[in-house]
Fold DUF1028 domain-containing protein.
Amino acid sequence: MTFSVLGFDPRDGSLGFASQSHFFGVGAVVGRAEAGVGAVVSQAFANTDWPHLGLGLLREGGSPDEVVRLLVAGDDLAAHRQLLVLDATGRSAAHHGGACAPAVSSAADATSVAGGNMLASAAVAPALLLGTPAPDDPPLARRLVAALRAGEDAGGDVRGSQSAVVTVVSGRRTATPWREVLADLRVDDHPDPVAELARMLPIHEGFGAVGAALFAAPLVIGTRSAIDPVQADAMLDRLAAAEALLGGNREAALWRAVVALRAGRTALGREVLAGLLRDRPALGDFVDGLVQVGVLAAEDLR
């Protein structure tokens, strides 16, 4: 009832998966990825323990082939299930039980593994494969979503589309893997969930810049005197690019103004802020509030 692709990007070590299904909220159940470890997807009549158990085995040093062998051996209903496993070096393995509903399809190449069931044809899985990226190809999240569209163009799920997910993590294995999530987008119920993922990706990228400014002191919070001018200029450039991605959503512009004012780029900050206040005068009270809590100073606004 689902098709998925797991991919590894040798350019930066990132890895992840994307799935589409005629099922509500496929992203909540189909798979998991962990930075520097790998990705595991269970589908068909899924065993929702497999992604968690599989990542544990990869974390302990198991190969994708070993993960598949151990998980399948421990499940009496494995004949009804599909399993896709990818490690942090791009190695992969797959299991497709003989009792999965047709059409069943699977394929793999040097950087990806794909599979599906209840498909329009066996051509779907090969259409999902990523191949080796060129240096100027888009980042992995965009390539995974494009792969889902290619799978749909090859026939897709014979029942249609309802939900989709794309998850990408970095290649860095750390004690805090939750900090290494590069993309985690889900469309739970939509007539064209893959198109909706594609629409959301630029917004996600734009808000990545906003989050980097907001949550990494001292650009927005913390001691202003600790702001590195080089870091501030780089963030201002990143937020300007985010404005273009976000279109009519002015969130990036707001925090670009704040970063500029805090970093001593006063003319730029006032110019951006003035444009925002012309478009949305109610923001004036919010800006005054930023002065009250110490994010900005009164002299920044004069």
About this structure: The two ends are 61 Å apart (CA to CA). The chain has two domains: 2-190, 216-301.
